Amino acid sequence: MKKTWRIKSVDQQIVKLLAKNLGVSKIVAQLLVLRGITNFEDAKNFFRPQLSDLHDPYLMKNMQAAVTRLQNAITQKEKILIYGDYDVDGTTSVAMMYSFLKKYNKAIEFYIPCRYDEGYGISMQGINYALENNYSLIIALDCGIRAVRQVAYANERGIDFIICDHHNPAEEIPHAVAILNPKQTDCNYPFKDLSGCGVGFKLIQAYCINNNIPDKEIESLLDLVVVSIAADIVPMIGENRILAFYGLKQINSHPRTGLRALMRSASKIKDLTISDVVFGIAPRINSAGRIDHAKKSVEILIEEDYEKSKSFAYDIEKNNITRKHLDKSITIEALDMVDKRKKSTVVFSKKWHKGVVGIVASRLIEKYYKPTIVFVENNGMLTGSARSVHDFDLYKAISKCSNLCEKFGGHKYAAGLSIKKENLNDFIHAFEIAVSETITTDQLSPKIEIDMQIDIDEVDNKLFRIIKQFAPFGPQNVTPVFMSKDIVDNGYGKQIGDDKSHLRINAKTDNGSISCIGFGFGDFFQNIKRYQPFDMCYSINENEWNGKKNLQLMIKDLQLNM
């Protein structure tokens, strides 16, 4: 699918002034201004984030009530059940809270619902488990904001809830002892985009303040927080940037044994980046819940014995391999079902594996770029994973079909839902109407957002070293993307990969050439070998081979120079 290139606009007077004040190049100044950094103080905070700049956790609504209830439970040695969702944000949240509270109360256990038997969120089975085992407090992490019925059921039976969630609340919220969620309309917490694990971390932070526990005690938890931030694709700004910055420091210096074992499985043992977490660590943590049970993910993340962690990692790696095979086969089937005439995609097969439908939905968007829902049959119901395109509010579209849903939840770009099988055709029709009425032609066209156009000769090691300091990257602080025109290969470009689907280029520069690699761009080689000039969108990276590092441009898109 052809992509639209869009160069971001910026006030050049502000860029020039910032370049002068900071003593940096115009390229660096423009990258900063595009990220909302326009003065020295902003730049200092951006390049040197400090944990001391984290907001006071007591600014979050209900924090005092949550700490008081937690304090009483620990003092009275009550049995506490830590409950979390089965995705990466949920399992890292549970592992973090468990690791911290276990030091102060041994009567603590965790519970992760089964993706297939219980589904997303707080389940009646989970509450009944707490009842049967005499738990008096449940701390729900990355879920619970919509569990009105379940929390009422627990309350009637003498079980209290503290809910730490970051999903959008409905009009009615549960009657918990405390709900911690910065997205509550009457919550004045300054930063609204924490991950679920991030909200849980704020509870721990508040508990530490209440008990004069030094900050050093909880810095070891930041390796889990950064994994949640990366996997849940929350904005990499504000507190998330600070937590991710120090989380990467922790994971690269003193990772917990479970993460170290997973890093070993992913063949990444040092210098992890957010990208490494997103594509290497997170899929492995997720695979346990997709293929087997997500409690395995928590078990490896709380394990302190490295040999046991390696055994857990071995099992999880087998899950991950199975996940890859299922992803590939189901995607092939689903692609054949897409109705290209519609502005939305809804596909279903009772044969598909529930654990990978979210991944498949993302694959379909890569190909056809429109709001997508993939349904499977589960316990007599259809459960679906939904994914959206840039700037289209998927959650609102599904809300318009709520009369056909038994259950749904999520946010602008991703959601989960359940419907009755007999309502499938009506839902497909209603969802198509909901999407068609609001989606624009522009939203249906994939974009490449370009920071600026530069000459290929301006790419050098100094620029790359500075760009590395912009990390950690993520939404609202993405890896800088550049565009250069009139590029010519030096004659050594070639198709690579077993199926020749990828492309390696050696772009001519004044000082020789620079290596470029484009995954999925193998067909463009026919233009390259004719020495036709072309334009290229790319990010700057480096490749290490035999201990030697060289600059390498990662191709985002190519167009012939017309």
Overall description:
The structure is a single chain. The protein is α/β, with parallel strands linked by helices and 562 residues long. The protein folds into four domains: 9-44; 57-254, inorganic pyrophosphatase (n-terminal core) (Alpha-Beta Complex), CATH 3.90.1640.30; 337-438, Diaminopimelate Epimerase, Chain A, domain 1, CATH 3.10.310; 448-562, Beta Barrel (OB fold (Dihydrolipoamide Acetyltransferase, E2P)). It is built from 20 helices and 19 strands. The protein has helices at 12-22, 26-34, 40-47, 63-75, 88-101, 124-132, 148-156, 196-210, 216-219, 222-231, 238-253, 257-265, 274-291, 295-302, 306-335, 357-368, 394-399, 424-438, 461-468, 525-528, and strands spanning 4-7, 80-84, 108-111, 137-141, 160-164, 178-180, 345-348, 372-378, 381-387, 407-410, 414-420, 447-450, 452-453, 482-487, 494-496, 502-509, 512-518, 534-545, 548-560. Strands 13-14-18-19-17-16-15 form a seven-stranded mixed sheet. A five-stranded parallel sheet has the order 3-2-4-5-6, sandwiched between helices. α8 packs antiparallel against α10 (222-231), α10 packs across α11 and α14 (295-302) runs antiparallel to α15. It is globular. The two termini are 19 Å apart.
